[in-house]
Each structure stands twice: as structure tokens, then as C-alpha cells.
Amino acid sequence: MGIPSKAPFHRQPGFPILILQAIVTAVIAVIFAVSGGWVAAYSALLGGLIALLANAYFAFKAFRYFGARSAKAIVQSIWSGAMGKWIITAVLFALTFVGVEPLEPMKLFIGYLLALLAAACAPLLMKVF
């Protein structure tokens, strides 16, 4: 078994990326609220939250262990985090499509993709700032 990390979740390396993702999600929801109405706003917000919750689960799993002796546990944890992330994403999309009416699917996917793009670009942006 690996050596567990003792750092709290908000001190983990992936946490600033989650914060940036949350900020982008909120900004997109406000932009859609102003330009497209409340349905567009909460559709985009739900899309961003789907990406954010899935990435939060992955970050929690990926940074559970540290050190060279924990290499096997780290790889297993990252693998299970990635699989869990995809399962959470699929389940949350299914629940959203079944349980939320009215919904604008295009705005939902725009919110999701922009939140993913924010997470992908976050390491580059954090080097600049």
C-alpha cells in the first residue's frame, strides 16, 4: 500500500484548477443569464458543474498518495479516478437529461466544454499569473 498524503484537499496540487473551473462555470452562467435567459443560464451552469464534480473526484483520487514507494498505489489511484470520472460524468448527464426540464442541451454542452477547456488550460494560465 502507498503512503497516504496528509495534506487537506484544498492544499492538493489540483485544487487551484478546480477553483478556476468553478469561476469559469459561474462566469459562463452569468453571461448566458444576461444574453439567453434563465434556462440557458442554468443549463450552462449544470454543464459546468458536471465537469467540475467529475474533476473534483479525479483530483481527490489522484493525489491520495505520494512518494516513490507509492508508485503502484499512485498509478492505481489515478486509474480508478479516471474511470470514476467518466462514470460520474455519464451518470450526471443522464440524470440531467432525465430530471431537468426545460433544458437547453446546446448550452449544457457549451458549459461542460468550456469548463473542461478551463481545466485543460489552467496549468498554462497559472504559469503566466
Automatic annotation (TrEMBL):
It comes from Ectopseudomonas guguanensis. It is found in: Cell membrane. This is ATP synthase protein I. Coiled coil: none annotated. The chain crosses the membrane at residues 15-34, 40-60, 81-100, 106-126. InterPro entries: ATP_synth_I, Cyt_b/b6_C. Pfam families: ATP-synt_I. Residues 1-129 form the Cytochrome b/b6 C-terminal region profile domain. The keyword Cell membrane applies. It is a multi-pass membrane protein. The keyword Transmembrane applies. GO terms for molecular function: electron transfer activity; oxidoreductase activity. GO terms for cellular component: plasma membrane. Keywords: Cell membrane, Electron transport, Membrane, Transmembrane, Transmembrane helix, Transport.
